[in-house]
């Protein structure tokens, strides 16, 4: 007997792997002769092929955006937002989600086999950029027969890919939804990423990235990296409200075991991440985040970069997000205005922090629903 899924769920979904046979030249100077992408789709592509939406994932995301996999009770990472009648309405749109090149959830990446060696790519996998991802995604669109996206949507690092799309392939994007993102990350954010990378690189089990052959995982380093990252995703207010300074026991134990509730939470988050993510992929993803700066090739003038864009934009920020603060979103908006682009901006009152872009906040959902209703009307 098959399980009953919520009425507003896309239900049981089956990911598929798509082979891109066209060579992909990367920003680092190397070329991949071919690569595979793990993909999920929801809804139906209309006869005009005009109702397709691409979802770009953030640092630790993947292709499983909505619905359920066989045998799993946990839905996709943005299930609250994607489905029948939801803000990204699969009754109206054909939604495409993928695991980016270099990922660890089925797409060609460090934990897949290098055909030249017959061994996992490991540290030999090339460093990739947001522009490389966009070019790979464009090849995916070609394979699916999608000449122009009705909208491309992404949060955090996903939002950076959305911006890159509008600059790299302006004629292929009708609407761009940039959520909780920045035009480039700050020195402080680069510093956080470097500490996370050093935690992994200095783990004795990392073996220079060749830990697969050793049958081990650099769990300590990856766990520390995730714990550090998770602190930056949450606001101080959210951590105080959720954990306070609560001890797990009545009195201090005067040792270095877990004593505070927040310590227990972070260790759990770190360990669960070790069980589902690849250390080499984490290094690649954080470097791509550091490298993102589309204005660099335009005299450090973001408005000049956006003058290439023809899409209409929705930019969304969250009041409690200190990692990619509302000020950074306003920089994007100002550059778009200076470039003469069509842009709408929404600041969502929030509590959690950077992770709010994943949450079903009513105001946030109303903004997305209203904007995408306009998109649907344009293509009707």
UniProtKB/TrEMBL annotation:
One of its GO terms (molecular function) is homoserine O-succinyltransferase activity. Homodimer. Its main location: cytoplasm. The lineage of its organism: Bacteria, Pseudomonadati, Pseudomonadota, Gammaproteobacteria, Nevskiales. Its EC number is 2.3.1.46. It comes from Solimonas fluminis. Pathway: Amino-acid biosynthesis; L-methionine biosynthesis via de novo pathway; O-succinyl-L-homoserine from L-homoserine: step 1/1. Transfers a succinyl group from succinyl-CoA to L-homoserine, forming succinyl-L-homoserine. It is found in: Cytoplasm. It catalyses: L-homoserine + succinyl-CoA = O-succinyl-L-homoserine + CoA. The keyword Amino-acid biosynthesis applies. PANTHER family: HOMOSERINE O-ACETYLTRANSFERASE. InterPro entries: AB_hydrolase_1 (IPR000073), AB_hydrolase_fold (IPR029058), HAT_MetX-like (IPR008220). Transmembrane segments: none annotated. Substrate binds at residues 226, 355. GO terms for biological process: homoserine metabolic process; methionine biosynthetic process. SUPFAM superfamilies: alpha/beta-Hydrolases. The record marks 323 as: Important for acyl-CoA specificity. HAMAP family: MetX_acyltransf. It holds the Pfam family Abhydrolase_1. One of its GO terms (cellular component) is cytoplasm. Belongs to the AB hydrolase superfamily. MetX family. This is Homoserine O-succinyltransferase. Keywords: Acyltransferase, Amino-acid biosynthesis, Cytoplasm, Methionine biosynthesis, Transferase. Residues 51-335 form the AB hydrolase-1 domain. The active site is at residues 156, 321, 354.
């Amino acid at each position: 007997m098959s399980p009953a899924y919520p009425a507003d769920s896309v239900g049981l979904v089956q990911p598929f792997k798509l082979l891109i046979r066209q060579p992909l030249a990367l920003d680092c100077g190397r070329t991949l002769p071919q690569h595979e992408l793990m993909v999920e789709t929801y809804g139906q592509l209309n006869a005009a092929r005009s109702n397709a939406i691409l979802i770009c994932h953030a640092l630790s995301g993947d292709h499983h955006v909505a619905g359920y996999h066989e045998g799993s009770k946990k839905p996709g990472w943005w299930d609250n937002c994607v489905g029948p009648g939801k803000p990204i309405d699969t009754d109206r749109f054909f939604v495409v989600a993928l695991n980016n090149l270099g990922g660890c959830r089925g797409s060609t990446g460090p934990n897949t086999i290098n055909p030249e060696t017959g061994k996992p790519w490991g540290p030999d996998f090339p460093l990739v950029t947001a522009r490389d991802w966009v070019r790979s995604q464009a090849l995916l669109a070609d394979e699916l027969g999608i000449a122009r996206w009705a909208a491309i949507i992404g949060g955090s690092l996903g939002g950076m890919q959305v911006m890159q799309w509008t600059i790299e392939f302006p004629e292929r994007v009708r609407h761009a939804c940039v959520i909780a993102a920045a035009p480039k990350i700050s020195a402080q954010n680069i510093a956080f990423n470097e500490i996370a990378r050093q935690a992994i690189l200095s783990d004795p089990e990392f073996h220079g990235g060749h830990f697969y052959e050793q049958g081990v995982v650099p769990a300590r380093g990856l766990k520390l990296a995730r714990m550090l990252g998770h602190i930056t995703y949450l606001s101080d207010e959210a951590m105080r409200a959720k954990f306070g300074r609560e001890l797990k026991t009545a009195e201090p134990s005067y040792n270095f075991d877990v004593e505070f509730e927040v310590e227990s939470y972070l260790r759990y988050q770190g360990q669960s991440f070790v069980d589902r993510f690849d250390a080499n992929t984490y290094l690649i993803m954080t470097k791509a985040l550091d490298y993102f700066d589309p204005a660099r090739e335009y005299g450090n003038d973001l408005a000049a970069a956006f003058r290439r864009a023809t899409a209409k934009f929705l930019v969304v920020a969250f009041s409690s997000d200190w990692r990619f603060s509302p000020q950074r979103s306003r920089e994007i908006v100002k550059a778009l205005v200076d470039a003469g682009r069509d842009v709408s901006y929404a600041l969502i009152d929030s509590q959690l922090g950077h992770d709010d872009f994943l949450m079903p906040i009513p105001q946030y959902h109303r903004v997305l629903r209203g904007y995408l209703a306009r998109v649907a009307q344009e293509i009707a």
